[in-house]
Amino acid sequence: MSNNTGIANEKPRISVLMGIYNCADTLGEAIDSLLNQTYKGFKLILCDDASTDDTYLVAKSYADRYDNIILIQNKTNLKLAATLNHCLQYADTEYIARMDGDDISLPSRFEKQLNFLDQHPEFALVSTPMIYFDESGDWGEGTAKKEPTKNDFKIGTPHAHAPAMIRTSVIKKVEGYTVNKYLVRGQDYYLWYKIYKTGYRGYNLQEPLYKMRDDKNAMSRRTFKVRYYGFIIKREVMRDLGISSSFWYALPNLLKALIPSYLMSVIRKIKLNKRG
Questions:
Q1: Among 52, 88, 99, 149, which residue's CB has the most CB atoms within a 10 Å radius?
Q2: According to the model, what pLDDT value does residue 3 have?
Q3: Rg for the chain (alpha carbons), in Å?
Q4: Please, is 72 exposed, middle or buried when counting C-beta atoms within 10 Å of its C-beta (0-12, 13-18, 19+)?
Q5: Which is nearest to 186 in space by CA: 248, 240, 120, 236?
Q6: Residues 239 and 159: beta-carbon distance below 8 Å
Q7: How far is CA 275 from CA 64, 136, 139, 271, in A?
Q8: For residues 14 and 23, what is the distance between their CA atoms, to the nearest angstrom?
Q9: 177: which residues sit within 8 A by CB, 6+ positions away?
């Protein structure tokens, strides 16, 4: 079992990659959720992606107080994939964990994920379902298949990205996140595709250990262009994994682009079987 308390001068086993952009209002809560983890043997690598608000100052206030927090900065706005690759350059631990600057990791997240990967070397990564919340509180809870296969890419991403923990050797073997114009979003889907194509497998714990902020601001980021790019990427992944009818499996991404964001929000809440 892992050391639940952690030791201040012990070499960290986890590097947490957090790309941050214009999240000054939520960043403190996100970082506090990491500092409150039952497992303490981690370092947090924050990369400010040229924010225009006080995000960098909030991050610096934490980096100045905690030795295990590293703060770096992009000179220009590079978007998430490139920002996470920048973080990855500072990762020298056994495991990589993800976290977003407006979300919350539940206290036992690292402890449970680390224990799982220590005990199951056959898996390259582990993630968990997410609890969804907005300004009114929790409104939904996701599910995840325990052991996804390549066929699960037909449906969507096999693992939630932000709650994931990955073996560093694996993410570096696939050369981190792919950076191109079609992956403004969907970096995780493409990363999992590269990992599975290389022959690795992932696992999903069934207990939600992460809370994702999914409010009206989140919905506004799911633009027509983002949905269209998702269609392009999914069709490519389907083809490369040898899955026939790639166009038809990718088509739902394109159809979602034609549905107004407010209606997609209603559909999403109904799908997650919570208040709508």
A1: 99
A2: 40
A3: 18
A4: middle
A5: 236
A6: no
A7: 41, 11, 6, 10
A8: 23
A9: 80, 81, 82, 84, 85, 88, 183, 187, 190, 191
pLDDT at 7: 40
Residues 60, 114: Cα–Cα separation, whole Å: 28
Scan for tokens 């070397």, then name that residue.
Answer: 121
Full 3-state SS string of the chain:
CCCCCCCCCCCCCEEEEEEECCCHHHHHHHHHHHHCCCCCCEEEEEEECCCCCCHHHHHHHHHCCCCCEEEEECCCCCHHHHHHHHHHCCCCCCEEEECCCCCEECCCHHHHHHHHHHHCCCCCEEECCEEEEECCEEEEECCCCCCCCHHHHHCCCCCCCCCCEEEHHHHHHCCCCCCCHHHCCCHHHHHHHHHHHCCCCEEECCCCCEEEECCHHHHHCCCHHHHHHHHHHHHHHHHHCCCCCHHHHHHHHHHHCCCCHHHHHHHHHHHCCCCC
The segments of the chain whose pLDDT lies below 50 read: 1-8, 274-276
| pLDDT of 275 | 41
Report the predicted TM-score, pTM, of the whole model to 2 decimal places. 0.88
Looking only at the bridges linking them, the beta strands covering 165-167 and 95-98 are antiparallel
Q: How far is CA 159 from the centre of its chain?
A: 9
Q: In this predicted structure, what is the pLDDT of residue 54? A: 98
In sequence order, the β-bridge partners of residue 140 are 132
Q: Which domains does the chain have, with CATH numbers?
A: 14-215 (3.90.550.10)
* Residue where the block lists tokens 């999403």: 268
Which phi and psi angles does 268 have, rounded to 5°? -60, -45
Dig out the tokens for 191 from the structure. 């990363």
Selection from 255, 273, 100 nearest residue 264 by Cα: 255
By the 10 Å C-beta count (0-12 exposed, 13-18 middle, 19+ buried), 130 is classed as buried
